[in-house]
């Protein structure tokens, strides 16, 4: 069983170029955590929703993640 982490973030478009370092830092961090055995033996999966740097789309992406992944915490 995996631990899912969700983020609504800028994946494509102009602002993605400026803020991409944060996104790739998260990917690197989770890759390293998983290489070391994850958290209590459980791998971390990152679920990403592209918000296009628009607040309304960020809300939509977050709600979609909640519906699909059924989180139990935050």
List the helices and strands and how they pair.
Layout: E1 3-9, H1 14-35, E2 44-50, H2 55-69
Parallel strand pairs: 1-2
Short description:
The protein is of the alpha+beta class and 74 residues long. 50% of the residues lie in helices and 19% in strands.
**Structural class of the helix and strand makeup?**
alpha+beta
Helix and strand pattern: EHEH
Shape: flat
The overall pLDDT, averaged over residues, is: 89
Low-confidence stretches: none
Task: Using the CA coordinates, give the radius of gyration.
Answer: 13 Å
Characteristics:
single chain, two-stranded parallel ribbon, alpha+beta, 74 residues
Notes on the protein architecture:
The chain has helices at residues 14-35, 55-69; strands at 3-9, 44-50. The chain is α+β, with helices and mostly antiparallel strands. It has one domain. A two-stranded parallel ribbon has the order 1-2. The longest helix is centred in the first third of the chain and has 22 residues, at 14-35.
């Amino acid at each position: 069983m995996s631990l899912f982490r969700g983020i609504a973030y800028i994946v494509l478009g102009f602002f993605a170029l400026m803020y991409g370092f944060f996104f790739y830092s998260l990917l690197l961090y989770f890759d390293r955590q998983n290489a070391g055995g994850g958290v209590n033996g459980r791998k971390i999966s990152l679920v990403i929703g592209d918000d296009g740097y628009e607040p309304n789309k960020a809300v939509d992406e977050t709600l979609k993640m909640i519906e699909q992944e059924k989180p139990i915490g935050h």
